[in-house]
Amino acid sequence: MATSWTHILKKVDDYRWEIPTSYKPGMRVPGLVFADERMLRQIAEEQALEQVANVATLPGIVGYSLAMPDIHWGYGFPVGGVAAFRIDDGIISPGGIGYDVNCLCGDANVLHEFGYHRPIREFEQRWSAERIMCIHPNERAWGTAIAAFIRHAKPVNQVFEITTESGLKIVATEDHPFLTPHGMTSIKDVPVSEFVAVYPFEGVAFEEPSDEVLVTEEDVAESYPGHANGLAQTLRALKLRDFLPLRMNDPRIPYLVKLMGFIHGDGSVQLRRRGALVTFYGSPEDLEDIRRDILAVGFLPSRVYLRHREHFIETHYGPKRFRTTEASVHIGSSAFALLVRCLGVPVGNKANSNFEVPPWLDRAPLWMRRLYLAALFGAELTVPTTVSGHPYNFYTQVISMNKRPEFAESGRRYFRKIEAWLAEFG
């Protein structure tokens, strides 16, 4: 171990060494190095431990200034250093996040959690309020907040343009990792003809929604079935959440569009003089996603309820008994029920009523219509299945709607509109 650090580091165990806060004025937390004695000698020679102590002086740091076994000298923040900072008074260090690390060109498209894509450069002024898709090769995709946005006018490292056999292209710095059959690999180490993973869903181009007013106080009053006192309470609840008036460019509209699509498929809205109930049916996993969307809008959903049911039906092959488990989520809010009603969701028994797709969605950006269709199909479209004995031949997926004869024409109009929307995607 270098002589200058021999009497400074405190040995915690054979693989952990602490830099006490007394080492340097201004250290807010200790440093903690993960290494054995042999590795520590090399680390000390590069003076990377000095940077560990420097990081410990940064505002808002909590716990420790950590140093992993591969630590070496970096740009202020040591490479291999790890630190956590409080949101309220902490900082974001470009050196800690990675200086000129994993960079993409400004034209690279990023997939948003709402299913649209836009160039990464367009996130510069709004990244803190946006959520993008995060893909894990062994799990489902999910939306995640953006931790930081760093722009470099000119890259320091070598830049590669990658073209796949399928025609996809991307420009990235040499250290940007790509998923290969051998794991995440820096692009400079990926040979030509190697396989790289691509995400098959591209989404649609982003378009700013207009500020068209979709719901007003008068709309709610006209739709309210109860007495004046109840209406006043409902209007107060909507105003408290800043829903009146509700415009198309409100950041909560995409969540409402998803919820509306699901209600048109596997949901129901009941509005009575004594209250309201909105119910969603689906798999427990999907219902947890719906609960998160409801919370994002500003309302409180129930937990996921499970109900075990027994069934008996007569078939061409004789009587059949079977059991099912029904999962559901409920919202007992008149304010929410009236809000989605004013946006175009049917109330009551859908088989006994005339309804069509919300007309304002025709004037909305294409990515909003995609959100509606995705939620509707997630609720009602049949699951992809293959023909028995032919694992590469799929049955045609089907979506259907139950209607009593006197309301069948509205169902036909509904699906003709869905057909027209699908044609917009080619």
How would you summarize this macromolecular structure in one to three sentences?
This protein has eleven helices and 22 strands. The protein is α+β, with helices and mostly antiparallel strands and 426 residues long. The chain folds into three domains: 3-97, no CATH class; 109-205, Endonuclease - Pi-scei, Chain A, domain 1 (Beta Complex), CATH 2.170.16; 213-423, Endonuclease I-creI (Roll), CATH 3.10.28.
Mind sketching the topology for me?
Blueprint: H1 3-6, E1 10-13, E2 16-19, E3 31-34, H2 37-45, H3 48-55, E4 61-72, E5 79-85, H4 94-97, E6 109-111, E7 116-119, E8 131-134, E9 142-145, E10 159-163, E11 169-173, E12 177-180, E13 183-186, E14 204-205, E15 213-215, H5 217-223, H6 228-240, E16 246-247, H7 253-266, E17 267-272, E18 275-281, H8 284-297, E19 305-315, E20 318-331, H9 334-343, H10 366-380, E21 386-387, E22 390-394, H11 408-423
Parallel strand pairs: 3-4, 7-14
Antiparallel strand pairs: 1-2, 2-3, 4-5, 6-7, 8-9, 10-11, 12-13, 15-16, 17-18, 18-20, 19-20, 21-22
Helix pairs in contact: 6-9, 7-8, 7-10
